[in-house]
């Protein structure tokens, strides 16, 4: 048996994480989270009955943390895709600021505590819906659909449409037609929003091997699908007014916003070459964000007006 001198033994120094607070915040996808928080807040405030402000804040916080956890787990799994795309190459994992195990641990811990906290402090029905939302986004969309089918955005859009449903369930303990209408609006909004982005980022998606519709079916087929989904979106978003679920201010605003959204979708369909085509898809992508925020802002305004004048929800 050979004798190994102590000075010949080398131990690997533990890696010191280079991640900053900003890197972990970036893992949460804060821009996506802001939309989740806003739509969830509208769903919560539209729910009938009185909901204690502390429980309301807890519900929105848990939904926000759950959304952030989903973003972290998405980045953990898609680090190879992110590294190949210009839009995502500066995310914390491709840059080497956060390791994959760190991101996985961060996402799992946040997922667990968001669901358990919502269940213990609010109700387990809402917590179950939040757990399903996280599972759907991470497993069904990120791990399965995104790399497998061009319909990834269509089916996966259900995850992004669930936050107002979860918030309603937190406030009411049950579901009804209104949160499902909110779900439908976001669900049909998602394809034209993301396909408009995919049109001017098609090279990125092709390079990363992601089967987005412009890559698999071509830009012209994508333009047609954007137009068709936008028509459905405008109709679905307008329907709650004549059906008597939302008020006139919502209906009129929905018509105005929907008309402009449809006009931009027509421009995307007609402009097929050169800089005009890129500009048309960028304009639709940017306006679609404003469209959804404005539509839900009007619903929020209706809630505030009802509270001021003392009308029942």
pLDDT below 50 for ≥5 consecutive residues: which ranges?
A: 1-14
Q: Which whole number gives the mean pLDDT?
A: 92
| 3D shape | flat
What do we call the CATH topology of the largest domain? Tetracycline Repressor, domain 2
Structural class: mainly alpha
CATH 4th-level superfamily of the largest domain: UbiA prenyltransferase
Number of domains: 2
List the helices and strands in order.
HHHHHHHHHHHHHH
Tell me the fraction of residues in β-strands, as a range. under 5%
For the largest beta-sheet, the strand count, sense and barrel status come to:
none
Amount of helix: over 70%
Number of helices: 14
- Secondary structure tally: strands: 0
GO molecular function: protoheme IX farnesyltransferase activity
Function: Converts heme B (protoheme IX) to heme O by substitution of the vinyl group on carbon 2 of heme B porphyrin ring with a hydroxyethyl farnesyl side group.
Enzyme class: transferase
Main location: membrane
Notable traits:
single chain, 313 residues, mainly alpha, Tetracycline Repressor, domain 2, 2 domains, 14 helices, flat, disordered N terminus, UbiA_sf
Description of the molecule:
- The protein has 2 domains: 21-173, UbiA prenyltransferase (Tetracycline Repressor, domain 2, Orthogonal Bundle), CATH 1.10.357; 176-313.
- It starts with 20 loop residues before the first helix and ends with a helix.
- The model is unreliable at 1-14 (pLDDT under 50).
- The protein contains 14 helices and no strands.
- By secondary structure, the chain is mainly α.
- 74% of the residues lie in helices and 0% in strands.
- It has helices spanning 21-27, 30-46, 53-77, 79-84, 100-121, 124-145, 152-161, 163-172, 177-200, 202-208, 213-216, 219-238, 248-270, 274-309.
